[in-house]
Structures are given as C-alpha cells and as structure tokens.
Amino acid sequence: MNESAKPRVGLLVTCLVDLFRPSIGWAAMKLLEDAGCTVEVPPQTCCGQPAYNSGDRILAKDIARRAIETFASYDYVVAPSGSCAAMLAKHYPGLFAGDPVSAAKAKAFAGKVYELAQFLTDVMKVEKVKARLARRATYHDACSGLRELGIAKAPRKLLNGVEGLELVEMAECERCCGFGGTFAVKYAEISTAIADEKIADVKASGAVLLLAGDLGCLMHIAGRLSRRGESVEVRHFAEVLAGMTEEPAICVSRPKRSPGSSA
Q1: Which residues pair with 9 in a beta bridge?
Q2: Are residues 172 and 83 in the same domain?
Q3: What is the pTM of this model?
Q4: Are 234 and 210 in contact (CB under 8 A)?
Q5: 88, 67 Cβ separation under 8 angstroms
Q6: Which residue, among 206, 214, 203, has the nearest Cα to 237 in the 3D structure?
Q7: CATH at 37
Q8: Which residues constitute the domain of residue 103?
C-alpha cells in the first residue's frame, strides 16, 4: 500500500498501559501497522475519565480540549481500552453541551475514535492475524467496552484465529470484575467479593489464560488471583494477537516506559 494512502492512526496509549504494561502499547502498534496503518503516538495525557467520574467537569473539559487538539490531524484515534475509548467517543460531546462550537468539534472527534479490536475488524477489515499460542483461554467482557461501545464479537473473532488457542466461554462473562476505577478503593470489600465471583467463573471454565481488553480489569483480577495463590495467566488480548507473549503475565511492577511516553 502506498504510504500516502495508509490511514494515519493516533494511538492513545492510556495511562495504565503507559505506567504498568507498556507491552500492550507495543502490541497495539504492531497490530495496527500489520493491518496497513501509519501509527504515531503523540505526546498525551489522561483521557479525563477519573476527573469526569469524580464530578470535576472543569478539569475533564480541559483534558478533553487538549486531547481533541492533540489528535486533530489523525484519520483515526485508537485505544487498547474500551474504557478510555468510551470516554472519548461517548462522553466528550456531552461535556460541551451549551457550547455549540466546542460540542461540534467534540462530536467530530468522537466519530473517529475506536477501541483496538473494533477498529481492526470494523474499519481495517482484519479477518485473521498471524499468531500462535497453545493455551486454553477465556475472555472477560469489560463493562465500558461492552455496555458503551458494544464490543463483544470483535476480540473473539480475532482470538479464534490464533493458531493453537482454544477459546472457551466462562459463565457470566459479561459480569463486572469489581474494579470500576475508584470503586475498588471506596468499596474494597464489595470489589473483592465481585472479583472472587469472576475468578470462580474463570476457574470453572477450565481456562489457564484470562484475556480482556481493559488493563484496569486485568490488573484487578490478576491482583486478586495472586493474593489467592491461583495460577491463571492474565493478559491483554493485543499481546496474544501480536504474538508478543514473552513478557511475564500481568503484574503491577513498573517495566520500561511505553512508546511516546511523556512522563
């Protein structure tokens, strides 16, 4: 494909990926480039979701304006997170209600925002990736990606094409993991109980690998698995699709920084 004809994608790495799991950012870049995109990672900050969820609309609007300006020149904005993608696509326009000019910019911006799996299948029409991993895996549907963006089929379609991977469905795959951002801090006991229910479903599936598309969920479940002494492997689906599973399973240590890190 001619370089000038390739879609220009601005990759929103996300805060958690940048700080805790940069390998997801590298995997996302590989998948997008393999699909025929030109990928760039401009200097970026948070998507604004923590401020928005805490009721700080002034800060959230300031962050949104900065993101809209930063990614203005790209054909698409892609995030390896349903949660962050939903913030940009579903909540940015509403932040500027009463400001027609800013609202119009936010709406236009929202129209080019996609979650990674959704973008690969729906926009780039990727049917199968070249990857192999001999594991029995199950998939957790993260709340924001599922309920706000309708993401369910896309990651499964791509994962089912991975050679050697047996993808099985757990009971209640759509049930919340208990993370919910600050919910896990404010209501730790309830959050832990919900995570234990999710883990019971994972174990009952017979899977040795848990996959999902949001690092917050994955870290929450991985942390609880570790405290319980369970041996289930936890990864973002992008790492599997990109064939980048050399990295140890998800933990909360701080490895090397992600592509384009501004911190």
Answers
A1: 39, 76
A2: no
A3: 0.90
A4: yes
A5: yes
A6: 214
A7: 3.40.50
A8: 3-122
